[in-house]
Amino acid sequence: MLRVLTLSTLFPDAARPRFGPFVERQTLGIAAHPDVELKVIAPIGVPPWPISCHAHYRAFNALPARETWQGLDIFRPRFTHIPATAGRFDADALARRITPLLAEIRKDFPFDLIDAEFFFPDGPAAVRLGQHFGVPVSIKARGADIHFWGSNPATAQQVREAGCKADGLLSVSQALKDDMVALGIDEARIRVHYTGVDLARFNPLDRAQAKTSLGINCPLITSVGALIPRKGQSILIDALQHLPDATLALIGQGESRDQLEEQARLQGVADRVIFTGPLDHDAIAHWLAAADVMALLSASEGLANAWVEALACGTPIVITEAGGAREVLQDESAGRIVTRTAAASAAAIAAILNNPPAPSACRAVAERFTWPRNTEALYEHFLLLTGK
Fold first, then answer.
1. What stretch of H or E contains 78?
2. DSSP category for residue 189
3. Model's pTM, two decimal places?
4. Phi and psi (nearest 5°) for 69?
5. Residue 112 near residue 89, CB atoms below 8 Å
6. Tens digit of pLDDT for each residue in 180-237?
7. 3-state SS class at 210
8. Using an 8 Å Cβ cutoff, are 130 and 137 in contact?
9. Strand 113-116 relative to strand 137-141, pairing
10. Which of 79, 187, 257, 287 has an alpha carbon within 20 to 30 A of 47's alpha carbon?
């Protein structure tokens, strides 16, 4: 058996059930492999007292130190995160905190490798832990961990060093791999590892009926992602002025919600913008299947799960030239790649509304991204690192 210790600060818990669902799904896949035993370390960064008493952190206090989550054995240690330090101390604090925990775990579970599922702070901490326990380390890059932490002056050097010292590296797209190489990480050590999509959950429905069930009787544009500037929802609200018959549904939550609501009000389109808040996977799938277009105007991405999930629902996408966009949309049979402007996105959306791709054509694109394929590629990668 291959014994895998997965380390991820990006993992759901009772306080954040929709946090890092793609990491959770990948982990469930590899844990179900018949030749794998797996345990998860899902650390939580908490500031020192009295800041830890703030409502933002208070919910973490009730989380158990260890639990069974979706059948996974998960440890949830807290490590000290110092606010206003741009994360510069997080990796060291994380490694120090979990070194004794891993020593205890190793007594009954002699893990063969450490699988870091986010590049920062997980990656640098994993490298240090791997050296301490004498096991190989794999680090997976997902997008913001390279684009933000890899360019942040406080953490960029830590990201580069972790990339150079890890035994193996994964990237969610070729485009992100290129970005890693640009940081000075050896291209030969990076393997592209595409995400998967749940083709049973995300599947086409009768679009008219799905819309009716949502109380919508006009062209529907959805956008799935955190409500933050990088995701470009404000550009889509601007684009609505060029799409007078359409409704825009913003699925997700985030720091920009109040600003986006005010923007929609000032532009006179508030009655055509729906803020759904956070939704579970089944509800997201229903909205995507009801939509005529899923638009996501990101400034940066690795390879967005929302792209593939929409396509699996038979829904065309309008996206920017970000991350692995051209690895997903290789032609215009299932959507458009546009510049990050209201005019360009509105024109692309209008073109799709006037001449929609067949749902089967969109679905066919998504079928290249499956969780079984993701699991097998990950298992092969782990075997290579461990020499088993």
1. strand 78-80
2. G
3. 0.90
4. -125, 115
5. no
6. 999 999 999 999 999 999 999 999 999 999 999 999 999 999 999 999 999 999 999 9
7. helix
8. yes
9. parallel
10. 257
